[in-house]
């Protein structure tokens, strides 16, 4: 049935592959913020989905009151997320992580419970403030014809920005002293001190960057969910982010893109022949063979 559907018109498969790649890019950058925090600071942020939601609402209100598009809104959201990330680290993480050479099981549980509580608080407040109404941004810069495929320019712009964000993060970590300090912290906290950096400042910066990318990703995501911004949207995109990070490997910057593209293609192609629920379930099930065959992630 699936084969006959696509063989009847090969351009349908090509279109779904293109749209899946575009969707995968934005899913990758949404997960990339989690990858920074989880992969570097070794903290699993349960409230990740709520900050994606706040980024989306930030883009919505910037568009509603000032007419700012999602791409420009991502810059404002990133700035807000950067400040929030610093506050998040010193309020929820610093007391538990300071002075420790490794993140112990006790510390993991403390930070897990703290971020879970924060998740409940944010989602509850969001329901009270924004109510349960679904909103969206009307953003349609047109389409680009590539043979038989019509590529939405909005999705193409977001894909380019998403790849630039991931590339910029990679270059920052690989080519700068601060980036080297962050990589050292992710491998061995004491190694951070050996190169002359303060572990707490390094961890707080990595957390701030993670939040900045997360909220920027929430803004970019609004291009794909024109009528899907709501207080509970984090319950969908947080699990997707976790699957992407595990697929690509925590701490691997290009792993975010690899995992995002994989899920984006699976989600979009399968929705052409099955229900969205089956498409999402299949994408999540891909995590099982990855964990068995390549527990370190699909990238080396």
Describe this entry's structure for a reader:
By secondary structure, this protein is mostly helical. The chain has one domain (about 1-295): ABC transporter involved in vitamin B12 uptake, BtuC, CATH 1.10.3470. It has 13 helices and two strands, in the order αααααββαααααααα. It has a two-stranded antiparallel sheet. It is globular and about 55 Å long. It starts with a helix and ends in a 7-residue tail after the last helix.
The structural domain count equals 1
Under the CATH scheme, which architecture would be assigned?
Orthogonal Bundle
Question: Over all CA atoms, what is the radius of gyration?
Answer: 19 Å
Strand content: under 5%
Strand order of the largest sheet: 1-2
Structural class by sheet pairing and helices: mainly alpha
* Annotation field: number of helices: 13
Count of distinct strands:
2
CATH class reads Mainly Alpha
Q: Tell me the major beta sheet.
A: 2 strands, antiparallel
Strand and helix layout:
Blueprint: H1 2-7, H2 10-41, H3 48-66, H4 70-97, H5 105-130, E1 143-146, E2 149-152, H6 153-175, H7 177-187, H8 189-194, H9 199-221, H10 234-248, H11 253-271, H12 276-285, H13 287-293
Antiparallel strand pairs: 1-2
List the main descriptive attributes of the protein structure presented here.
single chain, 300 residues, mainly alpha, ABC transporter involved in vitamin B12 uptake, BtuC, 13 helices, 75% helix, globular
Describe the structure concisely.
The chain is mainly alpha-helical. The chain has helices at residues 2-7, 10-41, 48-66, 70-97, 105-130, 153-175, 177-187, 189-194, 199-221, 234-248, 253-271, 276-285, 287-293, and strands at 143-146, 149-152.
């Amino acid at each position: 049935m699936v084969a006959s559907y696509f063989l009847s018109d090969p351009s349908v498969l090509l279109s779904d592959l293109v749209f899946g790649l575009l969707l995968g890019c934005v899913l990758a950058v949404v997960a990339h913020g989690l990858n920074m925090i989880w992969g570097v600071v070794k903290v699993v942020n349960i409230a990740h989905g709520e900050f994606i939601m706040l980024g989306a609402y930030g883009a919505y209100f910037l568009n509603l009151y000032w007419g700012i598009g999602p791409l420009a809104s991502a810059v404002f959201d990133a700035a807000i997320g950067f400040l929030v990330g610093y506050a998040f680290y010193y309020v929820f993480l610093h007391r538990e992580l300071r002075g420790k050479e490794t993140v112990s099981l006790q510390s993991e549980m403390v930070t897990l419970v703290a971020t879970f509580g924060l998740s409940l608080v944010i989602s509850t407040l969001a329901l009270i403030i924004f109510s349960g109404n679904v909103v969206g941004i009307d953003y349609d810069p047109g389409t680009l014809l590539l043979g038989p495929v019509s590529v939405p320019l909005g999705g193409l712009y977001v894909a380019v920005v998403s790849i630039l964000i991931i590339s910029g993060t990679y270059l920052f970590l690989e080519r700068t002293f601060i980036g080297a300090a962050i990589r050292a912290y992710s491998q061995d906290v004491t190694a951070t001190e050996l190169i002359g950096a303060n572990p707490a400042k390094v961890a707080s910066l990595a957390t701030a960057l993670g939040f900045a990318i997360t909220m920027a990703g929430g803004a970019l995501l609004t291009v794909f969910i024109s009528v899907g911004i709501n207080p509970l949207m984090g319950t969908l995109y947080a699990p997707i982010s976790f699957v992407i990070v595990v697929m690509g490997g925590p701490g691997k910057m290009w792993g975010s893109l690899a995992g995002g593209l994989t899920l984006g293609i699976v989600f979009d192609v399968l929705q052409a022949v099955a229900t969205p629920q089956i498409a999402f379930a299949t994408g999540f099930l891909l995590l099982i063979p990855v964990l068995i065959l390549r527990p370190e992630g699909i990238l080396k």
